[in-house]
Design a protein that fits this description.
Layout (H helix, E strand, L loop, with lengths): L1 E5 L12 H8 E2 L8 E6 L5 E5 L6 E3 L14 E7 L4 E5 L2 E5 L4 E4 L6 E5 L8 E7 L7 E3 L5 E5 L8 E7 L10 E7 L5 E2 L4 E2 L3 E8 L7 E7 L2 E7 L4 E4 L6 E4 L4 E8 L8 E2 L7
Parallel strand pairs: 1-3
Antiparallel strand pairs: 2-21, 3-4, 4-11, 5-10, 6-9, 6-11, 7-8, 7-10, 9-12, 13-14, 14-15, 15-23, 16-22, 17-24, 18-21, 18-23, 19-20, 19-22
Length: about 280
């Protein structure tokens, strides 16, 4: 298991960043490594993003050395989304079977998490979001059928999409974590329209199901000082509360969104008209 650390920056720093610096601060690449667990700890609301790709051997974590507590989950909760083949996650002896696009909520106090793939030739791809938690909530599997769908956008604007809420007060409770998956309709390219800010929450995007040759152009920054990141399959974008977020793909794609902050009010956002962007 490895843990990278990202410290976060002020929006005032953005005008001086070249592409290399922008990617280093806001883009987490190569998280999905066969037979390994990879984590990145960000000081943006102390979210940890991670991935585990178990092949022939089970992968296990739970020690808290990297987060300064006796156990990883001493003061944290986590959502784990399966973006690959069928797999299993065992939390302190309780085993959950995850199909593609199922999400497991792991509550504060868990001691050990073990991840396996049902078939090494079609391995699970587990993507993780973990945030600080102040109360104990039971572990829970949320299947893709149990997630709450919201249909958004329109064909005429190429932004039609279906958002599914998994870890959310209306579906499965948590302390501070929100997590879900958004799929674009065939022919649509734009996500998260209109662009917006939510000053009381940060967000992380994991783009997946992209063809190897395709990319997502993710727009970020203050509305009057935008920048872009070119994002490949499996890359994660960190979006601070002060940054807009929207993106367009060169081919089909989906993304996992995870949020944390002062509240869990999904509608607590400040839309930004596209015409106001610079």
């Amino acid at each position: 298991m490895t843990m990278r650390v990202l410290y976060g920056v002020s929006p005032a720093d953005i005008p001086s960043f070249d592409t290399k610096r922008l990617r280093a601060e806001f883009l987490v690449e190569k998280l999905f490594q066969p037979g390994a667990i990879e984590f990145a700890y960000t000081h943006v609301d102390r979210m940890i993003v991670g991935a585990a790709c178990p092949a022939g051997e089970a992968l296990t974590f739970g020690d808290g050395a990297d987060v300064g507590t006796p156990l990883f989950f001493t003061a944290r909760e986590m959502g784990i989304a399966n973006l690959g083949g069928a797999g299993r996650i065992t939390v302190d002896g309780e085993t959950f079977a995850l199909a593609n696009r199922d999400i497991l909520y792991v509550g504060r106090g868990a001691r050990q998490v073990t991840l396996t793939s049902d078939d090494a030739s079609a391995p699970a791809r587990f993507y993780m979001n973990s945030v600080p938690a102040g109360r104990d909530i039971a572990h829970r599997l949320i299947t893709k059928e149990e997630a709450k769908p919201l249909d958004l956008g329109e064909d005429a604007r190429s932004n039609k999409r279906r958002l599914k809420m998994y870890i959310h007060p209306e579906v499965a409770p948590s302390c501070l974590l929100l997590m879900g998956i958004t799929d674009l309709a065939p022919g649509s390219i734009w996500n998260t329209m209109p662009p917006h800010l939510h000053e009381r929450r940060m967000e992380a995007y994991c783009y997946f199901d992209l063809d190897e040759a395709d990319r997502v152009i993710h727009l970020m920054g203050r509305p009057d000082e935008t920048r872009n990141l070119i994002v490949a399959n499996g890359d994660v974008v960190l979006s601070p509360a002060w940054s807009i977020h929207m993106g367009a793909g060169t081919g089909p794609y989906a993304f996992v969104w995870g949020m944390t902050g002062e509240n869990q009010a999904y509608t607590d956002v400040n839309p930004v008209p596209v015409a106001d962007l610079k």
